[in-house]
Amino acid sequence: xxxxxxxxxxxxxxxxxxxxxxxxxxxxxxxxxxxxxxxxxxxxxxxxxxxxxxxxxxxxxxxxxxxxxxxxxxxxxxxxxxxxxxxxxxxxxxxxxxxxxxxxxxxxxxxxxxxxxxxxxxxxxxxxxxxxxxxxxxxxxxxxxxxxxxxxxxxxxxxxxxxxxxxxxxxxxxxxxxxxxxxxxxxxxxxxxxxxxxxxxxxxxxxxxxxxxxxxxxxxxxxxxxxxxxxxxxxxxxxxxxxxxxxxxxxxxxxxxxxxxxxxxxxxxxxxxxxxxxxxxxxxxxxxxxxxxxxxxxxxxxxxxxxxxxxxxxxxxxxxxxxxxxxxxxxxxxxxxxxxxxxxxxxxxxxxxxxxxxxxxxxxxxxxxxxxxxxxxxxxxxxxxxxxxxxxxxxxxxxxxxxxxxxxxxxxxxxxxxxxx
Length: 421
What we know:
One of its GO terms (molecular function) is transmembrane transporter activity. The chain contains 15 helices and no strands.
């Protein structure tokens, strides 16, 4: 067997979503764009901390960026259901590009202020409110249900490759040229994903509106549908806990780097990359086992392990041990996110999928404002170590409670039981 044939067999076995032409366009575009996104993420966090010196104010920026998702994601699910998702993504990705250029212009002209960063974070949050459920529910249109979990795992792989590369490049860029160049390059990176979207050809699923149903009735129906499902409900609850208490790395890691380790932005970038290395390993693990389908037990174990890793991270002041623990945290985080995302999409009926994914966006990212303010407040009063410990203890306790409450839902027959309805 020659190298090309061997490569084709490997891709078909472990990355079979890439055999779909439309998905390849989307995936390669995201490979470029997400590197820019992570450069902007670490650049913005370090910029805010440098300007204000306050963990709480850094938390407020993160809260502004995710507050719109908390407030409006349920309404976004209704919109996503009724319009072609490709067209929505072209609009949202263009808006993200414009906002990145705006932040770059403010920094490079030395006119940036904390208030301006808050406004741009809020606008980006509004845009992401529509973008997130659209991207999540677009996967099934371009790969189908059989390859959906593999596509979700590959998306996580891309995201975490970018989490390794982006912070590393961003840290060097900040040290040599300043944060403004991180934002400028992020703006240009959206060209790749817009090019990919322009070449995708697919028949969109658009749900016909029921004339007698108002928007609030549709939202209520989606929530009731999730609450009554023995697989969807515990999955959503686990994601809510992790999204609120364990996804505050943009707050805690820069504060930990500056105030506990007393290191510079290069160490901050390295620690974020460690998180990405672990997350990449988790994404690849889920990709290799994607043909087995999502299992609720995986989400339960992974969520509890995230809590343990956070507690241990709060007990160390060594940069090396911290890097290893962040890698472990990233590994279990992505196992949970990939497994949960796949379970929700594969088990939701077509007419409810966008609404289910809007709830996923709500609990995964929309809960971040609460967690950001909470972790920022704890870090301001008890230090970054204390914030890691408190968030870890609450994460572990709540995930154990959910596991105990829904232990009867662990039967394998529940997974995928509704996927073909």
